[in-house]
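TASK: fixed-backbone design
INPUT:
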């Protein structure tokens, strides 16, 4: 489809309004004319917020600062872009995640995600730099400095729902009688596709590859994500600053032998096994994880807490790892003995022993019993505020991460078809693992 002659004419008239334009462009005849044509051509409410967002992103000349007229698109292009925004059926969201402190990682592609390093032009394109500079002419994106980092990029497609105004200003269409303080327990800090990609990457043994465990076992940090949508009715967020990431001075010599101070990303070095290990994180491995997460073995919030631990610091990190293990290996009947069936051969075993036995069986490692018991005691000492609580060592912190990661990875393998119910799988693991207690 293409814009109607009426829309093209109205947009051309709006584009002829000289800067700085009227004090309230949204009430000006030229803007109102475009809005009226849109209502006639596409139905629904007369667009105001959606249209103002769209023309700003297209560079309506009267809203551009002096000397920035070159940022405006041709009015015919603008009219067709507005038409496309009204008639499209799907939109794409792109989540751009900087991998701060990352060593030189190999490129990966899985699902709709990519892990790679991009040059400044590629990164500017992914951020839709022209649209950003039209919205924030005094805050240009510094693609050159951002391109020094590696990125995890995830795209997701969504069906268009709601009218143009609801897409531009959803807060105006919320039910006012809703509980604005309610909590969705399944939502995390980042959008679900980002958390799913992070969970996949967190199944890698970063703590084993790390050469500086006392600094951080992680192979990278994700301090923020930038989400951009190709929906013209949604205003983008201001571009991120490279200064929010970790850069260090870098002294080099120029061709005349003079020292020049530059900057480069700070890296947490990994050992030589990391590159070969990450090569196993293929699209096939991603599909295996997606299939596993659709089974009953992942009906509990295992991924939620493993990602929480990655994003947390201090004792919160350790607690999240312990909760991930409990979510993976625990059953309600472990704590409520009256729920245990008469056929349960281990009725007198404590909840801690039952979880420890399952871990040992899943990982085929009797040492897991000792490690889990130690970590559980550490966790309990902290939770119950005992006077004997001590600082958590690097060894203990890494142990909690390693055990949680190994359990999650073990469940992916255990979820290979044919898979029984979660209760049956954990019951079998308990039967197999009690020998290690």
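OUTPUT:
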């Amino acid at each position: 489809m293409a814009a109607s002659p009426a829309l093209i004419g109205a947009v051309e008239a709006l584009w002829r309004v000289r800067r700085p334009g009227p004090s309230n462009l949204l009430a000006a005849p030229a803007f109102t004319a475009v809005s009226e044509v849109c209502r006639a051509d596409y139905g629904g409410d007369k667009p105001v917020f959606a249209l103002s967002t769209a023309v700003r992103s297209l560079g309506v000349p009267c809203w551009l600062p002096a000397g920035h007229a070159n940022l405006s698109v041709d009015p015919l292009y603008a009219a067709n872009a507005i038409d496309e925004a009204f008639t499209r059926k799907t939109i794409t969201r792109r989540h751009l995640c900087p991998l701060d402190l990352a060593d030189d990682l190999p490129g990966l592609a899985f699902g709709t995600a990519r892990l790679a390093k991009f040059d400044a032009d590629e990164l500017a394109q992914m951020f839709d730099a022209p649209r950003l500079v039209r919205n924030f002419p005094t805050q240009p994106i510094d693609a050159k400095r951002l391109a020094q980092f590696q990125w995890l990029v995830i795209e997701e497609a969504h069906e268009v729902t709601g009218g143009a105004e609801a897409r531009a200003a959803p807060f105006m269409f919320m039910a006012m009688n809703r509980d604005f303080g309610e909590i969705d327990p399944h939502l995390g800090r980042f959008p679900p596709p980002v958390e799913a990609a992070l969970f996949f990457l967190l199944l890698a043994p970063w703590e084993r590859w790390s050469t500086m465990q006392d600094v951080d076992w992680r192979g990278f940090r994700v301090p923020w994500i930038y989400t951009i949508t190709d929906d013209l009715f949604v205003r983008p967020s201001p571009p991120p600053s490279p200064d929010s990431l970790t850069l260090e001075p870098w002294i080099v010599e120029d061709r005349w032998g003079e020292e020049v101070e530059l900057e480069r990303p700070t890296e947490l070095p990994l050992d030589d096994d990391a590159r070969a290990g990450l090569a196993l994180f293929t699209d096939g491995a991603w599909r295996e994880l997606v299939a596993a997460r659709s089974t009953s073995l992942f009906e509990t919030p295992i991924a939620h807490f493993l990602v929480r631990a990655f994003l947390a610091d201090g004792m919160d990190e350790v607690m999240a790892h312990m909760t991930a293990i409990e979510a993976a290996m625990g059953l309600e009947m472990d704590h409520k003995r009256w729920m245990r069936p008469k056929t349960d051969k281990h009725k007198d075993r404590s909840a801690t022993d039952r979880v420890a036995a399952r871990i040992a069986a899943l990982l085929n490692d009797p040492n897991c019993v000792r490690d889990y018991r130690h970590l559980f005691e550490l966790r309990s000492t902290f939770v119950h505020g005992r006077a004997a609580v001590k600082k958590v060592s690097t060894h203990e912190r890494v142990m909690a991460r390693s055990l949680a990661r190994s359990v999650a990875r073990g469940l992916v393998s255990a979820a290979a078809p044919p898979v029984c119910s979660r209760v049956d799988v954990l019951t079998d693991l308990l039967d197999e693992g009690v020998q290690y207690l």
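COMMENT: The two ends are 69 Å apart (CA to CA).
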